[in-house]
Each structure stands twice: as C-alpha cells, then as structure tokens.
Amino acid sequence: MEGPEWSSPGLDVTAGRYPLSVERHVMRMVDHLVPGVTTVTPHARYYALHGLIAAHAGAAGSTAPAAQELLRRAEVALAAVSFAHHSHVHEWLPRAHGIDALARRLHSGSVAVAESAVPGRGGYVRNAWGFWGPYAGSETVLGILSPGPMPVPGPRLDGTAVRDGLGELLDLAAEETLRVEDLAPLGARLCVCAGGERPDGAWLARLMCGSDAADAGPRSTTRRQTIRLLTRVADTHHVVHFARDVGHVLAYGDFLTTDAVAGGIDVAPAWRGVVLRNYSVGAWRRLWSWLVEQVEGMIPVEELADRFAEELPDVTVDAFLSSLPATRSTTGVPLPAEHDLRLADEPLPLTELRVLAVGARRTDELSGRARDTFLGPRGVELGPEWVGRWLEEKRPTGLRDAARRLVHVLVARSQRVALTKVRRRPDGSLWLPTRLRERDGWLYRTSREGRGDVGLRLGQLSTVLATCGVLRYDRCWSVTRFGRELLD
Prior knowledge:
Shape: globular
Largest sheet: 3 strands, mixed
Number of helices: 24
Strand order of the largest sheet: 1-8-7
Number of strands: 12
Mean pLDDT: 94
C-alpha cells in the first residue's frame, strides 16, 4: 500500500456556468417539451450521418477506432461539400460544423482529408468523436442510435434511407484530397441544407413528427404536439426570426386559447409558462452579469451594492411596484410587459428589476398548467414566488436600500453555488468554477459573466425541421406540403 502524500498546492479558479443556478427549471421543462433537439443540434443531416456511420460500421464489423476515423473523415467531407454549395452564410441556417476551423483550407480550394480529420489543434474539431458528442443524446432519444461508446444502430434507424441520402459521403471520406470546385455539383444532394429533398430527410421528418404509430410514446407525443403548435404559429403569423417571433406568440395574447388548433394542444399552456419564466431567468442573468462587470480590482461588497442602488430611482418599493406596466388585459390575456420593458431606454439594472417584479406579479395571474410550469418547484430562492414575497416585505422601505440588501443575497448565493461545484482533481488540487470571488467582504473577478438568455431550442428545432423538409424559409417561415401531411 502507498502511504499518504501531499496533494499539489493551489486552487484553480476558472469560469463557471450558471453562477446563480436559476436556469434549472426552464432547462428541464424545455428538455421535456422538445425531446430529441438541443441548443447544439441545428442540422438534420448530422442525425442521418451518424446513423449512416453506425449502420456502415456495424455491417463491416468495424472496431471503435475505425468507426471513429470514418466518422471524422465523413464530417470533414460534409463540411467541405456544404461550403462548396453555399460559401455564403444562409440567413436562417448555421454553417456546417467544422467549416470555421477548415476555413483556410476551404478558401485555398482543397482539403487534405486525413490531415483535416485529425482531432485536436489543426483539425476540424478537437473531440476524438467529432460532432457525434453533441448529437449523441438526441440521437439516442429518437432511437436513431443505441447507447454505447461508439455509434450503434438504434431501433428507429432506417439504414436504406440514410444510405440513399448520404451514402456518397462515404466515398468522399475515402479520398485523400477534396477539391472544392469538384464538390459544388454534389451540394444539391449532400449539403446540410439539402436534406428536405432527400430520402434521409423524409425519414427523419417522420421520426421527428411522430407520424408512425410504432413510434408512439410519451416523448414522441410531446415532441409531435410541440411541432404542431410551432407550425401552427408559423401558419397564422408572420414569423421571420423563429425563436423570437414564435416565443412572443406563445407568451402573450389570446392565440393559445382562441385558435382552433392551438387550443386543443395539451402542451400549449406549458409553453406559455416556460417562455414567461425564461424572462425572469434572463433578468437574473443580466442583472448578475452587470454586477460582476462593476467589480474592478478589489472592491468591498458594500461598494458594489451602492453602485446598484445608484442606478435606481429614489422611491419606495411600493411606488416602484405601482409604476410597473400592465401585465394582463381586462379579459385576462397576458400583455407583453417584459418585452416592452426591455425596449425602453432605461438603465439595465432598473429594467431587469422591473422584469423580475412583473414575473412575480404573474404568479397570481396565470392559472392551470401555464402557472404550474411558470412556477416550477415552489418557494425556491430567486424564483417568482420568492421575488414576490421579498417585494411585499420591502414595500415600505426605499428601493435603493432594498437593492443594496439584494446584492448581499446574490453574492452569498453565487459563492454557495460555486462551492457546490468544487471538484478535486487527480493531483489533489481543487477546481472552483466562478468568475467572482469573495474574501472577507472584498470582491474580485477573474472574467466577465455572460448575460444571454437560456435557449428554448426553438431556433434549433426550426432549422432541423427545415433541413428535413417540414418547414421552409423564404423571407419568412412557412410549413411545407409534406409537413402538413405529417402533422394533420
């Protein structure tokens, strides 16, 4: 036996994610409502490509290293063909994975496949399994692949469809060099934007839309309902930016209750609750990002609290609440208060505090499944109910004094959240994921915080549906005839 020894010294403080841990409920609900698509799966053809590799490797009895190499080479070929087909950026579709890393080679006119496919620095991706990792969970949920350490065919994989649609990529993957000018004629069949016209796209569309009774199950049913709801919005509204425009319709107005189709979709109220709750989540993220940005060098917590207070009007909390915009109409329909507040020309801290207060008000205005989904786990710190109680308790006090106290609450919470994520590394040193450190009442930061909203996967779902033939983008979004056949 080896005896005890000293661990390596040091505490590695690096950037972490979700510093206030306010995102969990929204992320969990989105995973429930959009199974099979994530924020990093925008392309339908990668679902088919990974299925193709699984089917080919299984039929050939390939080892894991051989399947891994084939997958990487095929992804390089897909990136090269997609670049050759449209070197410009589609307004509605992200570039194929790996194009940015291969940009120098692609613009030179040729790509050495083996060199480009090597994982790590200099290749098209660092991960040994290419872009299979981001898609693997979704492909397993859909039944395209089975769980395992390498791509293995799942019960819903149609090997014939993926071979007919993308089989030519296997030939390209075997080439030593790919010339961009030679790939251009193949783009109409193999580009990431072309799946809607190919057999692999039709197969994936049926799988995504749950049109096959054999695929029926709770997750398939929920996904089908979500797609029916979103396509109905696209049918009845002018949708240019899918996530923004569809999200607005889901959150506000009477569409979900008056539309003949949307009114009969079970998940519609849940989507209203999720979109509205995400405004509050985004408010906490923006507010925290602004606070961390104010920390220059080392400053006491009290100074940070004062900087927050200076951005707010010198009124009582009661007066602050009275100044909030209306959140529902006389008929009880949700009004776009959060949306309008962010369009106003007000300091960020004041705007986001108002958004949080509006969210707290909605706890008594929503009902049924929309309210349950909006609230999530009850009584949690920084949730809408917590914000409502905090504001009620502070009504008689000054808004600036309440804000100062809130800063202390947020700093303390961020430190607790970071400590729950501490990990001991193999050498015995500790890893602490945080951008803001507190020591004896003094603060310093290692980097800035992001302030983007939590993704609801609406944009990614739209591009997946478009590249498998359910949706079409031509200055605005519409449903294809094939899409209607699958969803009616």
